[in-house]
Amino acid sequence: MSEVPRFWRESRHRYRLVGTRCLNCNTLYFPPRVICPSCRRESVGKMKEEEMSGEGEIYSFTVVHDGLEQFKMQVPYIMALIKMKEGPFVTGQIVDCSAEEVRIGNKVTATLRKVRSEGKEGIIQYGYKFIISP
Amino acid sequence: MRDVYILGVGTTKFGELWDSSLRELASEAGLKAIMDAGVYAEDVDALYGANTSGGQFVDQEQIAALIADYSGITELNIPSIRIEAGSASGGAALMQAYLAVKSGQYNTVVVGGVEKMTDVPSEVATEIIGGSLDAEWETFFGATECSIAAMIARRHEYEGFAKRENYAVFPVISHKHASMNDTSHFKNTIDIEDVINASPVAEPLTVFDNAPISDGASALVISSDSKKISEASNPIRIKSSSAANDFLSLHDRKSIDTFKAVKKSTNDALKLAKLEIGKIDAFEIHDSYSIAALIQMEEILGKQAVKMTEGSDFYYNSSNPLNVSGGLKAHGNPLGTSGLYQAVEATLQLRGKAGQRQVKDPRNYLIHNMGGLGTTSVSTIIGVD
Questions:
Q1: Cβ-nearest to A69 among B127, B152, B158
Q2: How far is it, in rounded angstroms, from Cα B25 to Cα A100?
Q3: Does a structural domain hold residue B178?
Q4: Residues 108-147, chain B: which have Cβ within 8 Å of A?
Q5: A104 touches chain B (CB under 8 A)
């Protein structure tokens, strides 16, 4: 159970795609950052949390056949790099479609799903995955 | 500033070495290096040990202390420090050892790398290799290191910079060279069709686009002691060593199919060595994935590198010999060891002692060791005066 705080503290970012905007240069970052890599010290105390829309498009993708132990039951699964409407890139899975349907440029929408679990009795971890927009 | 020379090199065979433990591999390589150098433990001022993930592969930290201990030098209280920079640990350790000697604090240093990867099942090894990615924002969601390489490859093809064959050729080159090297993990040769049609790992990459899971250790003795250098049979000089970094994750980079850090570390190393790229006679680069090899060569030689994959330019007997050791792909990839084996190979080549795979009269070697996919880059130039 020692793992709980590690996941709990990221919940809002993983459930609702909450990133941080640098109020100095107005760039939105996801995953969230405490320091803006462009403005550095100018950004200290000026990073404000902001939720993304969940809309984006596929920038690149792959079909994973030889995956991590935790994802063994899911192979083959699709990993993608999504360019979000608001600018940031996000690494996540594409679900509810076959690999043949996936193309660079496809519009996608974020959805909340089970991502992994710590065995039968451990906590279940949720987070975003993406589905191809209708 | 004083010059730093490689006095001796040593390596174990690479591969699935069931009979050897981490400490045995490390001391075997270290002993070979100091015997090759003709020095004794009393001559050694410090030990730098490279290791990427011993804590996870064999539950062991303080690896440098362990290596020193089981190499029998602990009675001398020689400082022994581990360097970790993902799969660039070997290159990073070599750089730190070089700087320590260059600075004047130490005269003679042993730098070694070791990784014992086959004590865990291969799925667990894949998980541990993924530790070089962002655990919270990549691995958590199912990304493996190969899946990240695959996304680089797909985008690079989509942009029209290269075709599948332009990177599928790198494993072919490495296997050809490894077949001529006694310490290689693999000795078989393959062709481009084998690479493309092998079982997929993360599309479009197949099992042949990936470097293997290997055990192995390599070590060097480096020194600026003028007496030892003059006594050494064939000292080779480290002309420069330079590192650079990029964002840890692909999703944070402005471009996903370029490796800015490779260009930076290589240009800095060339500048420090007062050399132009045209003066580099041969290369050892980090072909952990075929696509990574192509992108590195694009950063080092420019876009002409893509065209060069279509001929025979990168073979040992051609204009730009590349990974004549067999590379990480076929000589083997014991993570933290890779950068040091690159230096062992360069030394053997510069001494003219590489046997069947000898490059014709090389004077300057560029070795590039990488952590993750373009995250940490270490470029080192080794040559004869």
A1: B127
A2: 46
A3: yes
A4: 123-124, 126-127, 130, 134, 136-144, 146-147
A5: yes
Instruction: Examine the domain organization and report whether B180 and B321 are in the same domain.
Output: yes
Closest residue in B to A69 (Cα–Cα): B123
Answer yes or no: do A62 and B202 touch at CB < 8 A.
Answer: yes
Residue B366 Cα to chain centre, angstroms:
11
Residue B273 lies in a domain: yes
Q: Report whether A23 contacts A46 (CB < 8 A).
A: yes
Structure tokens at B255: 């471009």
In a domain, B33, yes or no: yes
Q: Which amino acid is at B237?
A: R
Return the CATH number at B20.
Answer: 3.40.47.10
Q: Which domain holds residue B369?
A: 122-211+239-331+345-383
Residues B219, B29 contacting (CB under 8 angstroms): yes
Clarify whether residues B39 and B174 are in a common domain: no
ipTM: 0.96
Q: Tell me the shortest Cα–Cα distance from A97 to chain B, in angstroms.
A: 16
B169 with B304, same domain: the answer is yes
Compute the nearest-CA separation of A65 from chain B (Å): 5
Distance CA A81, CA A108 (A): 11
CA distances from A70 to A82, A94, B141 (A): 22, 17, 10
If one counts every other C-beta atom within 10 angstroms of the C-beta of residue A16, the result is: 13
Of A37, A65, A125, the CB nearest to B202: A65
- The alpha carbons of chain A give a radius of gyration, in whole angstroms, of 16
Scan for tokens 């700087």, then name that residue: B99
Please give the order of strands across the beta sheet that includes A28-29: A28-29, A18-22, A47-51
Which band of pLDDT confidence, cut at 50, 70 and 90, is reported for residue A1? Answer: very low
Examine the domain organization and report whether B136 and B224 are in the same domain.
no
Same domain, B76 and B195: no
Tokens linked to B72: 């029998």
pLDDT tens per residue across span B187-234: 999 999 999 999 999 999 999 999 999 999 999 999 999 999 999 888
Q: Verify that B39 and B162 share a domain, yes or no.
A: no
pLDDT in tens, B32-82: 999 999 999 999 999 999 999 999 999 999 999 999 999 999 999 999 999
CB pairs under 8 A between A and B: 105
pTM equals 0.97
B167 and B221 co-located in one domain? no
A102 burial class (0-12, 13-18, 19+ CB within 10 angstroms)?
A: middle
Is B151 an interface residue toward A (CB < 8 Å)? yes
In a domain, B336, yes or no: no
Which pair of structure tokens corresponds to residue B359?
Answer: 């490059």
Cβ of residue A72 closer than 8 Å to a chain B Cβ = yes
> Which tokens in the block code for residue B244?
């650079």
- For chain A, give every domain's residue range: 53-132
**Considering the domain A53-132 in this protein, what is its CATH number?**
2.40.50
